[in-house]
Design goal:
heterodimer, A: six-stranded mixed β-sheet, four-stranded antiparallel β-sheet, 10 strands, B: mainly alpha, 10 helices
Chain lengths: 252, 259
């Protein structure tokens, strides 16, 4: 039996009442998921479905109102739960005054990686994301794609067992997308777990073992990609649109 | 401790890679040089005036650096969203608060060393002597006081998200407790109850930053407080800064951060 890597049990997240509203905003409503070791898990849903909130709970940014969230069996509120994970946010959120090498060194220190080992990993990751020519330049001089590659490198600095990717290919050019896909595939081959959200359903279909589709904070469907395709006898995009109740309007 | 140290080094790197730090440094240097070039009093008066102006500039500049640096740390982490990759690592919010504090406080220390070395050269050139021990004590006490100020600005930064109003408020509070605070005890004696007790309580509760301002004693060549007194004052400031940092953490740890 494979280890449970991401475990959500009846997760509920409410945001405080906005002015003019009498009920709190329910971002996630009774969501339960179980992602096993070695899986590439696609977390899908339209904008505002609760995907990012769920990821924010997993990463400890947001506190759950109810239910339970665990990483490697440890409550996500415990910082140790994040020792074995790598996180790539949708946009690049790094210190612009530091160089790629300094950023990687900083995160290596945070993980308590020894200097020699950190040097080795930094060299390898800089090569992996093809930033050798710019590794000593401050990030403010980088293009968006280059910054995203730094993001990918920092997410891998601790050699994580679980990689959480929030729309990793958003805003990337085709080469960048291919690179991310290659890395996901490589991690999968190494037996790592990847949990990622994406709007690129074709990509999800290609790389994911299992997917979950959420809408309005609730789980609408979950299963192996092949099983879902067989069950609905249509492509993932159509399954997604049907499950969220999308009705195409005639263009007049 | 590795994590706290790593976070603090980023704060220091940010400070010396920003232009405003150098602007302040150059401005202070120019003003001090200008003051040092005055020669329209007799020699003793010049040296005294020079010391007064330089130490006042050092106090103001270090306060500006300490408060503005600390006030923007957590808000800019949130605004630039650099807090997210950081907290996605095994980092607690207490470590973030502590790392930010240590970084800002060390940055203040580096700035003070630069200022005091420059001040020492200037005074030494005029007086032909250099009271290193007195300089060290003066600088240490100022640095200790800046620890409380930095912790106060950090607390303000998790209550008021905009660094500008927080920095302004911190300046007002610091100037208030330094210049008005010491007189509250005397004023409270003449007040009717319960105002008297209330004011007296405030007098005891506010941080007594005036204890750390040894400028007048130094300028007037009086005897500086002994090591035991400095140690007690350091302990008092450490306790106060710890209290402020715990309050900062208590406020910050439950804050939801949405990407």
């Amino acid at each position: 039996m494979m280890e449970s890597v991401v475990q959500l049990k009846n997760l509920r997240v409410e945001y405080p009442i906005a002015s003019g509203s009498s009920v709190p905003k329910l971002a996630v409503n009774g969501l339960s998921l179980d992602v096993r070791q070695g899986e590439v898990f696609g977390f899908l849903g339209p904008n505002g479905a609760g995907k990012t909130t769920t990821m924010n709970v997993l990463l400890g940014f947001v506190n759950a109102t109810g239910g339970e969230a665990r990483l490697f069996g440890v409550n996500v509120r415990e910082p140790i739960a994040r020792q074995r994970i790598g996180y790539l946010p949708e946009l690049t959120y790094y210190y612009k005054f530091l160089s790629a090498e300094e950023i990687l060194r900083f995160y290596a220190k945070v993980f308590g990686i020894e200097r020699m080992e950190a040097d080795r990993r930094i060299d390898r990751l800089i090569k992996l994301v093809e930033l050798e020519h710019a590794s000593k330049r401050p990030l403010k001089s980088y293009s968006k794609g280059m910054q995203q590659r730094v993001g990918l490198a920092q997410a891998l600095i601790n050699n994580p067992d679980l990689l959480i990717l929030d729309e990793p290919t958003s805003g990337l050019d085709p080469i960048g997308r291919m690179k991310v896909r290659e890395i996901i595939q490589r991690l999968k081959n190494e037996g790592k777990t990847v949990f990622f959200s994406s709007h690129e359903l074709g990509e999800v279909e290609t790389v994911c073992d299992r997917v979950a589709i959420v809408h309005q904070g609730q789980l609408r469907e979950e299963g192996r990609v092949a099983d879902l395709l067989a069950k609905y006898k249509t492509g993932l995009e159509q399954i997604f649109l049907d499950l969220i109740g999308y009705k195409p309007q005639a263009i007049t | 401790m590795n994590t706290v140290w790593a976070i603090s080094t980023v704060v220091i790197k940010e400070l010396y890679r920003r232009k405003d730090f150098y602007v302040l440094l150059v401005l202070t240097t120019l003003l001090t040089l200008a003051a040092g070039s005055m020669s329209f009093f007799n020699e003793n008066t010049i040296v005294r005036a020079l010391k007064e102006i330089c130490l006042l500039l050092i106090w103001i500049s270090s306060l500006i650096i300490g408060i503005t640096t600390a006030a923007r740390q957590i808000p800019s982490e949130k605004e630039n969203r650099t807090i997210f990759p950081l907290l996605a690592k095994p980092v607690t919010r207490w470590q973030v608060v502590l790392g930010k504090f240590l970084g800002c406080w060390l940055a203040c220390g580096i700035t003070l060393i630069v200022f005091y070395v420059f001040f020492g050269i200037l005074v030494g050139a005029r007086e032909h002597t250099l009271p290193v021990a007195a300089f060290a004590k003066l600088m240490w006490m100022q640095w200790v006081a800046l620890g409380v100020v930095v912790a106060l600005a950090l607390l303000g930064s998790v209550v008021l998200s905009a660094p500008g109003p927080n920095a302004t408020l911190c300046f007002i509070v610091v100037l208030g407790v330094t210049f008005v605070g010491p007189h509250l005890g005397k004023v409270s004696v003449g007040l009717t109850e319960p105002a008297g007790t209330l004011l007296y309580s405030i007098y005891f509760l506010i941080p007594h930053l005036e204890w750390y301002d040894l400028r007048d004693i130094f300028i007037n060549d009086q005897i500086l407080p002994g090591n035991a007194a400095c140690f007690m004052a350091t302990f008092y400031a450490a306790a106060y800064a710890t209290l402020l940092l715990v309050l900062t953490w208590a406020r910050f740890r439950r804050q939801n951060l949405n990407t």
